[in-house]
Prior knowledge:
- Mean pLDDT is 86; it is low at 1-17.
- The chain has ten helices and eleven strands.
- The chain is α/β, with parallel strands linked by helices and 363 residues long.
Amino acid sequence: xxxxxxxxxxxxxxxxxxxxxxxxxxxxxxxxxxxxxxxxxxxxxxxxxxxxxxxxxxxxxxxxxxxxxxxxxxxxxxxxxxxxxxxxxxxxxxxxxxxxxxxxxxxxxxxxxxxxxxxxxxxxxxxxxxxxxxxxxxxxxxxxxxxxxxxxxxxxxxxxxxxxxxxxxxxxxxxxxxxxxxxxxxxxxxxxxxxxxxxxxxxxxxxxxxxxxxxxxxxxxxxxxxxxxxxxxxxxxxxxxxxxxxxxxxxxxxxxxxxxxxxxxxxxxxxxxxxxxxxxxxxxxxxxxxxxxxxxxxxxxxxxxxxxxxxxxxxxxxxxxxxxxxxxxxxxxxxxxxxxxxxxxxxxxxxxxxxxxxxxxxx
Length: 363
């Protein structure tokens, strides 16, 4: 039987709390999708989504899915023709294939923000609270921006909104941003900075697990955790502390010290958190972006420490949503793990998904 839990002040059972997690198909290059070529369609994606559904103990049809990406992986076939016309969506939607042997040939899932936002919101105008999503490609990590926006939609005024990104990369750009170029490697900028008509969705963007020099972990481990606050004070700030737990306390202290420009000098009424985990911050992820700096066990522990510390040692915290991003790809490789068959690679991802679900259920 599912374990009763408490999230956002409401008791739910695990399967109910997860509200049938969303499976977001943004690539045709998944390790279990069959690789390039052939006729593309749900028959390629469904078997992988079925395995995720089974892992989470959901009943048949319990996993709502955004699928499939089109045969050329630069469009989303589930967008209704009427929606395309009404929103003036381009065809194709993406600048280049999402994912592929070369990480999208450097495009990193580049898309016009308003186009992707309109397309996704036409399918999911609202999300469960809290929401939980599995995004198949970390070349589409910018989907997390739009999921977090929806997850924060009903957060009351005066509560701090926090996006925490476990990732081998910062996914942040210090350059001037362009809403016509939302990518997996710059979406964090949109979290806290206005870009054209886009309004920041959070008060803090936290980056944990980034690679240091030479692609290695920093010394000591986890010591390069940083935070950027909502504009105009977006400079990178190190979160002090030898552990992820201490860094979460530093995060709260930083938010409290900046209430003047973030909350009209009023104390925060509470904190709402969205957590996204890009599997590429750990070794053996088999994504297009190579090995991360941390072992699987160390990565799991860091996610646990982050969520447990906020949940149990910071008052008035609620979790608005979660996602895990970056399932193994057709061309993904791992120096740490060596050669593994596609199903073996996918099994590693299923372990991550189950571990993450357990962490959510324990809150």
